[in-house]
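Fold Annotation — chain and its backbone
Next Lines — sequence and tokenised fold

***
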Amino acid sequence: MVAPVTIKDLVFRYPGQSQATLRGINLEINQGECVLLLGPTGCGKSTLALCLNGLIPHLISGEMQGQVYIHGVDTRQTTIGELTQKVGLVFQDPEAQFCMLTVEDEVAFGLENLGLPRQEMDERIKSALALVGLSRERHTRLDRLSGGMKQRLALAAVLAMGPRILVLDEPTSNLDPQGTADFFTHLATLKAHRYTILLIEHKLDDLMALSAGSGQSLVDRVVVLGPDGHLLANGDPRSVFRDEAPRLLHDGIWLPQVTELAFRLAQAGIPLPRFPVDAVEALDFLMPLVRARRPGPRGHLPPVHEKANQGPDYSSALGQRVILRALSLAYTYPRGTQALRGLDLEVREGEFLALVGANGSGKTTLALHLCGILTPSQGKVFLDGHDVSTWPRDRVAAHVGYVFQNPEHQFVTGTVFDELAYGLRLRHVPEGEVQKKVASLLEEFALAEYADVNPFKLSQGQKRRLSVATMLILGQQVLILDEPTFGQDRANAYRLMDEMCKLQQNGHTILFATHDVRLVAEYATRVVVLDEGRILFDGQPQALFAQREVLRQAKLNVPTLYALSQTIASSQPTWPPLATIAEYCAHLEACGP
């Protein structure tokens, strides 16, 4: 039987680049298999996805060598129209694929282009929407859908075209934890229907915990691309994560948290019987270890990457100067959506504050008010005691830097170097100092080789790093970042957050909106939970993780390691609530055998 996907000696180089993005890729994906594709930012994951549905080489130019076969047919010898009925591609941003106003019309659009009879179109629309759980929303306008619903609609529009191969390029990047869990559940349904799936994804904890069918993991195989575009690993998840953990961490590739915990413990001389890939397995291996250990000093553990809660905690910040204040803040968008509802918030100088909540809870709207981009429908925002509405935008921008959720919204020049230099030159910084500062940040954010590249030609992860760097270079006292680690590999996510941590320790105030509760546990000194434009919770991360009802209402999940800690404590009452790898390592270090 011919494999649905066969790749032989694939090499691809984009125009103007000296090095190939993909180098000698050989890979087969079997019928009904779900393959997880991992790799650092810029390694070629999205490029490989584009090769599977024929956009490369038919629409995207470049030098391609080798072959890609879909059901035994060379993609070079097949039209894109034919390939779209065999391979469905879903991108990170679902709205980039939409062109109609309602759910039904969006799914029908591709079918109309195929010239299908009306009855067959109706059956396909009905079936596709049922598979992704959107049957009730068939006649709903797209602007009324949540982020999770939009992503499922993008998947439904692809499914209706009839492909049996699905290529999903970080489909949950924009989704809150509940939306992510729902999407993965629907993927499990598709796998049960024998769809062949190639999934590019960073959210491994939820993914590896999900089962499809009779106790089988959703992910059958893990394929890893190295930073130079070579195939680095190819095997079942446990084997890849166990055997390649040092290399994966070195190359900045995400691992499931419990797998990384096992690796760190093994480094410290506290090995587990085998590497777990989900919390259930980790519990089986940890419980004997926990029961066998007693309090007592042990040798020093090797350093763990995390910089958990290094700034002042929320209680110690109560006496500090209030740098931002929102009073009775309310905002209604022109179409009538009420995003903020009489919200009060104080942010103190030097805090590292996380804004969390479901898609549509008001995080971005609040952030845009705090930096003066939006004007409230009612209420006030004060910056260091001054009404922001009375200041010109450039004066506010000199004090508050804002990094947009979509990095492309803030690019204004033709090269990466000029993008970083732009704000400094506007402030008439001497050119010698501009050159020095820009060169330093290009190195720090791994963008030096792209200095002369147009920002819009960067990968999504590279665009995000550039957008953050453009704010850091200006040195504002307050930095507000909307999903700063969106689309980032492990190395770059931590590089960004560590840089924020350094700034916070030097007196800067950091606010970041995120769906990643792992980063909240590791970095935030305070967390504010929004729900339908109101503050649902305001306090320290550990206090939030203990409030299941708040998490449920805000569609957040408990960090994997915190949930594991709670399970351990249910039978070992002295076990403390731990939420990060650093905390687990430190605690187990203090418990001798």
Summary: The mean pLDDT is 88. The longest strand covers residues 322-332. Residues 315-539 form a domain with the Rossmann fold fold (CATH 3.40.50.300). The CA atoms of residues 72 and 419 lie 45 Å apart.
